[in-house]
Amino acid sequence: MGKLLLAPMEGLADDILRDVLTRVGAYDLAVSEFIRVSGSLLPARAFHRVCPELTRGSRTRAGTPVAVQLLGSDPGCLAENAAQLASLSPAGIDLNFGCPAPTVNRHGGGAMLLADPEQLFRIASAVRRVVPAEIPFTAKMRLGMRDTSRTLDCARALAAGGVVSLVVHARTRAEGYRPPAHWEWVARIDEVVQFPVTANGEVWTTDDHVRCCSLSGCPDVMIGRGAVADPFLARRIRALAAGEELASDRSSDWRRLQPLLASFWLQVCAKVSPRHAPGRLKLWLGALRRTFVEADVLFLAVRELRGADDVTRMLDRHGVLRLPAPA
User: For the segment 219-234, what is each residue's pLDDT rounded down to a tens digit?
Assistant: First the structure.
């Protein structure tokens, strides 16, 4: 059984959802949403805002280590900020070369850098010089911009620049999040570098995990949207690997999830304005509909509600808030 990593998911998996998902699933590592680095040295509070776990030894409340991801295109500025981040003792420092968002790519960051392996090398080398050896220095990349013509060159550039492991989202920027993920390309990357490679993309079920490991040749897998849609996925993957029989009826999992839904909602209400809190819950429930019919019922019940108080009453009516939320 290889490692299971919880993916960074901008606009979806903040510290609250990381807290809930790592309490349910047995993840070896989580990675924060990216912190954009652009032209200035960020204060410590900027890193703490995205990764509050830094104040708890860079771990979630369940004890899962959290690496912090940086996004930018200027080697010097990234290095300066990586040094600042390193002083806060993160569980790892990760560089983002995979984000396909137009707002990021317009400024030359994320997946846009895959068009220039030499720049990847310059960035990785600059950051490597300032990150202490005891802090894992990693990167995440896609297969390229529109094709795979420079995929292996990018992987080699990051290896030469000093990263100690690499997560590969097995799609190009142009493919976005459309299936399929090309896990066989992860195997090709693994052949040209001398450090651990982790496969990422389109792992929604235990069967997906088995196929991903088989086609990529990599035992380590990073799970993103699949973990949000099925918070028990990591646990089920580990159970299957241990030879346990998996229940096809997920009703017991839904009952176990309800207190964590309550915890999520209460934390969101404490962090986000009442006007924006309902949207956060709807976003997660919308993902959970893929796995749980009960989530579909609850989503439809809260979909038209706009106020946090109205949502709280609806959750109580559905029994979610009557169960003790985990500490």
Answer: 999 999 999 999 999 9
Cβ contact 181:170 at 8 Å: yes
pLDDT for 240-285, tens place per residue? 999 999 999 999 999 999 999 999 999 999 999 999 999 999 999 9
Cβ neighbours of residue 274 closer than 8 Å, sequence gap 6 or more: 307, 308, 309
Cis upstream peptide for 180 (omega within 30°): yes
Give the count of beta carbons closer than 10 Å to the beta carbon of residue 322: 12
> Which pLDDT belongs to residue 25?
77
What positions carry a catalytic annotation? 99
Q: Calculate the average pLDDT of the chain.
A: 95
Residues 6+ positions from 312 with CB-CB distance below 8 Å: 265, 269, 321
- Whole-prediction pTM value? 0.95
Asked if residue 323 has pLDDT above 90, the reply is no
Q: What is the pLDDT of residue 322?
A: 66
Residue 325 has pLDDT above 80, yes or no: no
Q: Tell me the two tokens of residue 215.
A: 């086609």
